[in-house]
Design goal:
The complex is a heterodimer of chains A (354) and B (345).
Chain A: H1 17-50, H2 58-65, H3 71-106, H4 113-116, H5 118-132, H6 138-159, H7 166-189, H8 193-204, H9 212-232, H10 236-240, H11 243-248, H12 253-275, H13 281-292, H14 296-319, H15 329-353
Helix pairs in contact in A: 1-2, 1-3, 1-14, 2-3, 3-9, 3-12, 3-13, 3-14, 5-6, 5-7, 5-8, 5-12, 6-7, 6-12, 9-12, 13-14, 14-15
Chain B: H1 7-43, H2 51-59, H3 66-99, H4 112-127, H5 132-154, H6 158-182, H7 184-194, H8 203-230, H9 234-239, H10 244-266, H11 272-284, H12 288-313, H13 321-338, H14 340-343
Classes of the chains: A mainly alpha (354), B mainly alpha (345).
């Protein structure tokens, strides 16, 4: 008798040949997807270093990256474009990973920091620091981090009722999003016009003006959180099966969920504090990743790559004025991400009906 | 058996009478609350004016008296705008919740406010409009477009409708921001409009939108009975002879009229339309004839109340009504989301 892979015995008894074949197939697919994404990121990065106010030929841009070329080229590439490129990659990776954690933990493709109000909370924190205290730089980042954390804890506190129900979590998040956005509107209305305009840019999010220290904070924080996520990633796949199955496999569901969500909130707060709330990256990146690899744990890795590629692509579009104006990065991600979410909602219903 | 068969009808009739008394009592209390907030909104503020002076300003104004000028020029228009916008938001919220059978529906939550905002911003940017009374038509247009989009995707599924609304808001926000970044003039007008406030809207805007609110309120009253049937489900409503499509279309028109009018009066105010019908249902039960009536009374109570609180909460300036209303409404949304009804969906 030959068994098809889908009908294989429980994952614990892994000696059966079809399971090994399936695993090998999955690993090959994962490597292929990651290779393609890496190629895409390299191509986009070359574009990002090449295009701009002063456009350099790709060869010269790459040479300047490694310290070869005249002072002008070195300044443009190493001082202006490289930090921006790194900020886009790191922030995209953080948002992608956070979104994947949110979605798999809450088992809801719509759970994202944009809908949950965590992004708006970060904006309220940052704008309070900018307009209320008149500070700039790292203080603004700290304000954003605090704002995002506070609103996440509030949602948590109010959504918790004999466990964490995912729809309740999302709805409570929507409620806090409205509260936060009305506070934000008030902050913008009561400020001086020029200050309000720069605060408005912050609330959209941009990778353009990230300085060295902020970049270092983002990089280090992301590295630490990625390690944390890697250590809890083995809970992700069982959680996706539903609470009962996960419990049956010996996973403490509440602990797993709390750990994943805390990591996700920390990632969002970290990335938002440096580049602002880039709308919908955390929503779209994992959705694309799930289409590429259909597997809980691997989807986390792929989400990191899709997030980085998405933000980089959005920034190339934003910086080079393809919208008719040099726009902050977050506008491009919002204009691409929201229609995608609408499409997701529209087709979700049809699938549910069918 | 202790109760004779003859006693049953009387006790049923008694029950009905008791329920009607309770509902009338709720309405009377709402009227009293309305009177209190109207008086408070005339009397209280940065400059407190005593009640007799207010009365004199209304009946026998003295030209040149500063208090009288404040009352007639600022507080009375503000109270009237609050009454009209509050009524419109309360009734619109009740109609939306009824027609979608959705406890978490509200003009703001469904993206109508952001649609209106986008249309207004584009009008300021492209056509150079600057007076709120000119915004009216664009606010209606934008609210209608957003409503059409949201209902076409999310109709029939309560939780999804709220998510589609939030998504449409999230889609429109970067568009608004894009316009605001290009046009300083638009940004300056918009940021004062977007916070949601009862000040700075003169009686001229009120005169323009009042007919829309009146038509919307009449349509809503006509819908009450149909909403009661619809609450039993589409199939039962159809079985009772209702054309559900017609009900939906009329309700959509009503919502756009009321929410568009409220938004052009007071800016995008979220969560009044959510909280008020819930409070009304608590007091008078699920009969939409009473829910709509009480929502029409409690809407202005909440909005004007928020406005008055906003005047008192900061020592030397004001917190706009929209901010206070959101601060009152968000806990209601959270409470509803925590309730069994929604988490079961």
């Amino acid at each position: 008798m030959t068994t098809r892979p889908v009908a294989a015995p429980a994952p614990g008894t892994a000696s059966a040949a079809p399971v090994t074949a399936l695993r090998r197939h999955r690993r090959r697919r994962l490597l292929l997807v990651l290779a393609v994404l890496a190629g895409l990121i390299v191509a986009l990065a070359t574009l990002a270093l090449t295009l701009g106010a002063a456009s350099l030929p790709p060869g010269r841009a790459l040479l300047a990256l490694f310290g070869v070329g005249d002072d002008g080229d070195l300044f443009i590439v190493q001082r202006l474009r490289l930090p921006r490129l790194l900020a886009a990659l790191l922030a995209g990776a953080a948002f992608g990973l956070a979104g994947a954690l949110f979605q798999s933990t809450l088992r809801n493709p719509l759970a994202s920091p944009d809908i949950l109000g965590i992004a708006t909370g970060a904006s309220v924190g940052a704008v309070t620091v900018m307009l209320g205290l008149g500070l700039t730089g790292l203080a603004v980042s700290a304000g954003a981090f605090a704002g995002a954390s506070v609103i996440a804890l509030l949602i948590w506190f109010f959504a918790w009722r004999q466990g964490l129900h995912s729809i309740r979590f999302v709805l409570v998040g929507v409620g806090f999003a409205y509260l936060a956005s009305s506070i934000l509107a008030w902050l913008l209305a009561s400020a001086d016009q020029r200050e309000a305009a720069s605060a408005l840019v912050w609330t959209v999010g941009s990778v353009a003006d990230v300085r060295g220290t902020e970049l270092a904070v983002l990089g280090l924080g992301l590295a630490v959180l990625a390690l944390v996520v890697a250590s809890i990633a083995r809970w992700q796949a069982p959680l996706g099966l539903g609470d009962d199955h996960a419990r049956g496999l010996g996973v403490s569901t509440d602990a797993a969920r709390v750990g994943s969500l805390l990591a996700a909130v920390a990632l969002v707060a970290l990335a938002t504090s440096v580049v602002g709330p880039l709308a919908f990256v955390a929503l779209v990146a994992p959705a694309i990743a799930r289409r590429l690899v259909d597997d809980g744990g691997a989807a986390l890795t792929v989400s990191v790559a899709t997030g980085a590629a998405l933000v980089l692509a959005a920034d190339v579009v934003a910086e080079n004025g393809l919208l008719g104006v040099t726009a902050p990065t977050g506008i491009v991600t919002g204009l691409v991400g929201a229609p995608y979410l609408l499409w997701l909602l529209a087709t979700h219903e049809k699938r549910a009906r069918a | 058996m202790l109760t004779s068969p003859a006693a049953v009808p009387t006790s049923a009739a008694e029950q009905v009478a008791r329920r009607t008394r309770r509902r009338l009592l709720a309405c009377v209390l709402a009227l009293v609350a309305l009177a209190v907030v109207v008086v408070a909104s005339l009397v209280l503020g940065v400059r407190d004016v005593s009640l007799p002076v207010v009365w004199q300003a209304l009946t026998d104004p003295v030209a040149g008296d500063v208090d009288h000028r404040v009352i007639a020029g600022q507080r009375v228009p503000r109270a009237l705008v609050g009454l009209a916008a509050g009524l419109a938001l309360g009734v619109a919220g009740a109609v939306i919740q009824g027609v979608t059978r959705n406890p978490i529906a509200d003009p703001g939550l469904l993206g109508l406010n952001s649609g209106a905002s986008l249309a207004v911003v584009c009008a300021v940017w492209l056509l150079g409009l600057s007076a709120p009374s000119q915004f009216v038509w664009f606010a209606f247009l934008g609210a209608a477009a957003a409503a059409a989009l949201v209902f076409s995707i999310g109709a029939g599924q309560p939780v999804k409708l709220a998510l589609v609304g939030a998504t449409v808001t999230a889609l429109i926000t970067p568009m608004i921001t894009l316009v605001l970044l290009r046009d300083q003039q638009a940004f300056n007008l918009y940021r004062f409009w977007a916070v949601g406030s009862l000040t700075g809207r003169g009686l001229d805007t009120l005169v323009v939108v009042l007919p829309f609110i009146a038509v919307g309120a009449v349509l809503a009253a006509g819908l009450a009975h149909r909403l009661n049937m619809l609450a039993l489900g589409d199939d039962i409503a159809r079985g009772l002879g209702q054309r559900v499509g017609v009900t939906r279309a009329v309700a959509g028109l009503t919502i756009v009229l009321l929410a568009g009018a409220a938004t052009s009066l007071a800016g995008p105010i979220a969560l009044v339309g959510l909280a008020v019908p819930h409070a009304a249902r608590r007091l008078v039960g699920t009969d939409y004839r009473w829910v709509l009536l009480l929502s029409a009374l409690l809407g202005p109570v909440m909005l004007l109340g928020a406005d008055v609180i906003g005047r008192l909460i900061l020592p030397h300036s004001e917190l706009e009504a929209g901010v206070v209303a959101a601060a009152i409404g968000a806990p209601v949304l959270v409470a509803v989301a925590r309730g069994k009804k929604v988490s079961g969906v």
